[in-house]
Amino acid sequence: xxxxxxxxxxxxxxxxxxxxxxxxxxxxxxxxxxxxxxxxxxxxxxxxxxxxxxxxxxxxxxxxxxxxxxxxxxxxxxxxxxxxxxxxxxxxxxxxxxxxxxxxxxxxxxxxxxxxxxxxxxxxxxxxxxxxxxxxxxxxxxxxxxxxxxxxxxxxxxxxxxxxxxxxxxxxxxxxxxxxxxxxxxxxxxxxxxxxxxxxxxxxxxxxxxxxxxxxxxxxxxxxxxxxxxxxxxxxxxxxxxxxxxxxxxxxxxxxxxxxxxxxxxxxxxxxxxxxxxxxxxxxxxxxxxxxxxxxxxxxxxxxxxxxxxxxxxxxxxxxxxxxxxxxxxxxxxxxx
Length: 337
Known about the structure:
Blueprint: H1 2-19, H2 23-27, E1 31-37, H3 42-60, E2 64-69, H4 73-81, E3 88-90, H5 95-104, H6 116-119, E4 122-131, E5 151-154, H7 160-175, H8 180-192, E6 197-198, H9 201-210, E7 216-220, H10 221-231, E8 235-238, E9 242-248, E10 250-252, H11 254-260, H12 263-272, H13 276-284, E11 288-289, H14 292-297, E12 306-308, H15 310-314, H16 317-325, H17 330-335
């Protein structure tokens, strides 16, 4: 913890030292950041951005405007790779940041080494949201493949949320001792129960909560708690026996930040995610913090279930992407009708 805190402090101090602002010059040169993010971070960033703006104003005297763009994570990442000039990208899986290097060389290949915890300040996991009283008696993954169960999941080809749900179901079979063929059969049955594939997590939430489609919504832990908070006591959250660790990485988009002359500010903004204040805001939004002190404070908020990583079960994201989500991969084979 001390080592991590020291690194965070060093990064923040370095960012501030490079800025060399004076109150008079800052007033004439206020900065704007664009953070391109995924669907279900909208409410988190409303609070996080306000906190950072206040922090930066106090530290430097500069007024900062932070603009947000939200959508399916895969689609968002491709938009930046194709020229959407984000200063920051905050995703729910590292491949959606890797493509900024692979396709456009917007960031260095080793971008994950620039911030603590492989540049992932927070994490989440895939859980089930069901109608109040759980009328279909859904308790674990096996219940999702039963006849007559309608499941709402965003498209794994366009949504990180959807990818995690798919991989969580596949990994469940593997963790129970099943083989790859059995996992493929299981996930195939699950997707036969999916009536519609939205492009992103927020679209799937709308389908389930507002359009009334489906018996169960598979989505991130923070999203299901937000739905319950916003829509009242209409739903129950079901934690499966095992699920996937969904890490939320962040990176400065160097090429665009340098062009906008926001590199120092963008680094400070990214680093603020690892600060105690940033981690507190994440926990308040049911996003799992990585800072041990904050995690301990909110331990009753996050159920302690067995979580497996993409590396552990699938051999890393590159292999998972090629095997499951590339054109002609397992998902296309499963879902083609």
